[in-house]
């Protein structure tokens, strides 16, 4: 978030983050509401993300019903794409953190790529854990570590006097896509929205005015604005892709915080890997003889990690990856798909007075398309610029 404020400016950073949060929480309401209505119409207890899309298209206007299976597959593959690209982001984050601390301590000059290779060895092991019950303890330790990291990071941010001189208040036009892509990536978690809602004892509480969705996004927005504003105000143009990378490398508390952050992300990767592997295995598992399932699981999990390592080695820098993944995956999942599903479900006469819901959905869809196209372009230009 401090990096997002660096590209967006202090004033626009706050306004833009609130805007993205409002749009995102509205899209959550669209997705969950559409899923609930689709379940009621088809008399199905619960539907996942991809299954909701398939159901909505299958019962939609006659001309698009043939695309139901394509819609389901599309969402599955987008979830796979954003999940595996995020592994690249995490690989680079862990490696960059280790590089800063270890190079300083040992007075060596190893490149980020060496640390990516070393980190991949640990990632390859933890991503071999397949049972959710064995991954939960790792997640608990990781979440506890992140809370400690967050508190210590705020301590360092507020330790220095805050000065607003020589800082941007408003963004340059070419930085807007990067800003929105980064904020959407930071806030977005649309892939877990329906699984959470489906598991609730009282799912009707999810969309209430003071329900789960509004409270969670509101809390996150406040905290992100605090960290983003004061993080950029503290580190200025030196702000890095993750604020923990700005902590001093010559202080034990800061170094332990950076290592703890990297350790927490490493432990989280196993759980993060679980959902895409479940999707992928459902698609290919039945094509593999059962006696070879174990070997196939090991090979596929390892091959994907190696492929992501190769991508991370190609561009061993954190910032362009965040904007790239946010633009491609998060914009599609969090903005384009929920508005599309709501529009298809309501077609042709469920848009209210003067078809205001249709107009609103078109505006939101255009915003999502802007982030997708323009944000992806500028992120790719940033990646290309690394070689120049």
How would you sum up this structure, described in words?
This protein has 388 residues and is mainly alpha-helical. It contains 13 helices and no strands. Helix 2 (10-42) packs across helix 7 (176-187). The model has no long low-confidence stretch (mean pLDDT 84).
Brief rundown of the structure:
This protein is an all-alpha fold. It has 13 helices and no strands.
Could you list some keywords that capture this structure?
388 residues; 74% helix; mainly alpha
Question: How is this fold's topology laid out?
Answer:
Blueprint: H1 2-8, H2 10-42, H3 49-58, H4 68-106, H5 112-126, H6 132-159, H7 176-187, H8 193-199, H9 212-235, H10 252-284, H11 293-314, H12 318-346, H13 356-385
Helix pairs in contact: 1-2, 1-7, 1-9, 2-3, 2-7, 2-9, 2-12, 3-4, 3-12, 4-5, 4-10, 4-11, 4-12, 5-11, 6-10, 7-12, 7-13, 12-13
């Amino acid at each position: 978030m401090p990096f997002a404020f660096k590209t967006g400016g202090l004033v626009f950073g706050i306004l833009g983050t609130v805007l993205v949060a409002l749009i995102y929480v509205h899209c959550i309401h669209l997705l969950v509401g559409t899923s609930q209505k689709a379940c009621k119409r088809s008399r199905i207890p619960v539907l996942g993300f991809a299954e909701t899309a398939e159901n909505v298209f299958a019962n939609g206007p006659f001309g698009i019903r043939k695309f139901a299976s394509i819609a389901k597959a599309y969402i599955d593959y987008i979830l796979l794409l954003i999940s595996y690209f995020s592994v690249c982001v995490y690989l680079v984050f862990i490696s960059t953190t280790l590089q800063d601390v270890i190079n300083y301590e040992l007075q060596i000059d190893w490149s980020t790529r060496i640390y990516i290779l070393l980190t991949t060895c640990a990632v390859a092991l933890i991503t071999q854990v397949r049972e959710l019950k064995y991954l939960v303890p790792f997640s608990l330790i990781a979440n506890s570590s992140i809370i400690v990291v967050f508190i210590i990071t705020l301590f360092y941010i507020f330790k220095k006097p805050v000065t607003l001189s020589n800082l941007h208040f408003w963004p340059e036009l070419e930085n807007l896509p990067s800003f929105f892509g980064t904020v959407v990536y930071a806030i977005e978690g649309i892939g877990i929205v329906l699984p959470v809602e489906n598991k609730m004892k009282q799912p009707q509480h999810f969309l209430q005015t003071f329900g789960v969705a509004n409270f969670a996004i509101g809390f996150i927005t406040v905290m992100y604005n605090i960290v983003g504003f004061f993080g950029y105000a503290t580190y200025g143009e030196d702000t890095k892709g993750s604020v923990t990378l700005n902590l001093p490398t010559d202080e034990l508390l800061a170094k332990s915080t950076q290592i703890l952050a990297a350790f927490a992300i490493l432990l989280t990767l196993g759980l993060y890997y679980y959902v895409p592997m479940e999707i992928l295995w459902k698609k290919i598992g039945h094509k593999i003889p059962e006696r070879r399932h174990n070997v196939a699981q090991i090979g596929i999990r390892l091959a994907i990690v190696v492929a992501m390592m190769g991508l991370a080695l190609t561009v061993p820098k954190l910032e362009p990856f965040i904007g790239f993944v946010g633009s491609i995956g998060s914009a599609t999942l969090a903005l384009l798909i929920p508005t599309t599903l709501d529009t298809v479900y309501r077609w042709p006469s469920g848009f209210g007075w003067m078809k205001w819901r249709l107009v609103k959905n078109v505006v939101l869809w255009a915003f999502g398309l802007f982030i997708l196209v323009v944000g992806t372009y500028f992120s790719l230009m940033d990646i290309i610029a690394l070689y120049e």
